[in-house]
Design brief:
Elements lengths: L2 E5 L8 H14 L4 E5 L5 H5 L11 H5 L5 H4 L1 E5 L2 E4 L8 H4 L9 H9 L5 E5 L6 H9 L2 E7 L8 H14 L5 E10 L4 H13 L4 E7 L2 H5 L7 H4 L4 H18 L1
Parallel strand pairs: 1-5, 1-6, 2-4, 2-5, 6-7, 7-8
Antiparallel strand pairs: 3-4
Organism: Blautia segnis
Catalytic activity: ATP + H2O = ADP + phosphate + H(+)
Protein name: Sporulation initiation inhibitor protein Soj
């Protein structure tokens, strides 16, 4: 049985797409077969994995509204061992089209159920909001990974996210767990980053990953070249950090 991990936080700019892209690539480096699903209409994970989001014909949008099937939508081997279900701005219209459809919260789950036996991990990059797309991701997932940026408002909205996760677990997906919190954009030169980490640890009872993702220029540059950090600069601190996170994710499964 593979694991389906939703990377979620309704706050924007916390490193969701960066984490989805690079965790996928680092899991693949470990020999795991990964399907990455871009659930965000901005399509950053799609372009960050080297796929032209404006040129691709079949996307998650067509899949959700029943205009394509999962086999034709998956883009194979965007990185070795990583397949992708791409997205673009069309996905923003999906929510309106799904109004009135029975069991609309389960559409993504029905899609992933068809292919999950082909993969060790399915990584879903969620949009920066708690909308029907995110609900679909949480209903399909076995766990939620929450990136938190090391900045002053880090905890803002986190209680709402955890409340939503609890609601989904209660009403739609009994198997859903919080995979853990991962700190991103950590700047060792500032007291603020350290204070945020301490503050979250004090206020949050959830699992917190030991790996902390640093603020790293190479990590920020990689998406514009359509490459995960493991290809763009495999020796950078950003690449090493995501490798450590991937190892923690794999080890957590063993535990």
């Amino acid at each position: 049985m593979g694991r389906t991990i939703a990377v979620a936080n309704q706050k924007g700019g916390v490193g969701k797409s960066t984490t989805a892209i690079n965790l996928s690539a680092c899991l693949a480096e470990q020999g795991k077969k990964v399907l990455t699903i871009d659930m965000d209409p901005q399509g950053n994970t799609t372009s960050g994995l080297g796929v032209d989001k404006n040129a691709v014909e079949d996307t998650l949008y067509e899949l959700l509204v029943g205009q394509s099937d999962v086999e034709t939508t998956i883009v194979k081997d965007v990185v070795e061992n990583v397949d992708l279900i791409p997205s673009n701005v069309n996905l923003s219209g999906a929510e309106i089209e799904l109004v009135g459809i029975d069991n609309k919260e389960y559409i993504l789950k029905e899609i992933t159920d068809k292919v999950k036996d082909n993969y060790d991990y399915i990584i879903i990059d969620c949009p920066p909001s708690l909308n029907m797309l995110t609900i679909n991701a949480l209903t399909a997932a076995t766990s939620v990974l929450v990136p938190i940026q090391c900045e002053y408002y880090a905890l803002e909205g986190l209680s709402q996210l955890i409340h939503t996760i609890d609601l989904v677990k209660d009403r739609l997906n009994n198997n859903l767990e919080i995979e853990g919190v991962v700190f991103t954009m950590y700047d060792a030169r500032t007291n603020l980053s350290l204070q945020v980490v301490e503050n979250v640890k004090e206020n949050l009872q959830q699992n917190i990953y030991k790996t902390i993702i640093p603020r790293n220029v190479r990590l920020a540059e990689a998406p514009s070249y359509g490459q995960p950090i493991t290809i763009y600069d495999p020796r950078s601190t950003g690449a090493e950090s995501y490798r450590l996170l991937a190892e923690e994710v794999i080890n957590r499964e063993v535990e």
